[in-house]
Design a protein that fits this description.
Number of domains: 1
Oligomer: single chain
Largest sheet: 8 strands, antiparallel, barrel
Structural class: alpha+beta
Order of helices and strands: HHEEEEEHEEE
Number of helices: 3
């Protein structure tokens, strides 16, 4: 009888130890790629030697998980490609390639380094050939 009690107590302690040493649940922030593909975006601010935000008007920008980027307004839809890489210094780079007759949308093409993000905006910078700043805003 003593052996059964000792085994029961040992089993109870073992099970308790297992469940009290579980890894806690962590809330992980979405990666930039997940954030981009789960939302529609608009240009909230664009600076290239001057503020050019108004050049992007009412375009809604969509980053698809298959590497396609679409810019759409009431009159046109323009597509291109995009990708995400991490540089050797761990900077996230979003590469955008749009080639269309609309020169304003072509200004989005480049290698955009992630400079910060909030729950509703993402800030990028591109330094080639001159420094440009892009801030996109999440759309409902």
């Amino acid at each position: 009888m003593k052996n059964a009690s000792v085994c029961t107590i040992a089993l109870a302690l073992f099970v308790t130890a297992i469940f009290t040493n579980c890894t806690p649940d962590y809330t992980f922030a979405q990666s930039t790629e997940e954030t981009l593909t789960r939302n529609g975006w608009s240009v909230d601010y664009y600076f290239q030697q001057q503020d050019m935000t108004n050049e992007f008007g009412s375009y809604r920008i969509t980053f698809n998980s298959d590497g396609i980027i679409s810019c759409r307004n009431d009159n046109e839809v323009v597509s291109g490609t995009w990708n995400r890489v991490v540089s050797s210094d761990q900077t996230e780079i979003i590469g955008i390639n749009i080639n269309c007759p609309n020169q304003n949308l072509n200004m989005l093409s480049g290698s955009w380094a992630l400079r910060g993000q909030t729950s509703s905006t993402i800030n990028f910078e591109d330094s080639h050939p001159t420094t440009s700043v892009l801030r996109i805003k999440k759309q409902p």
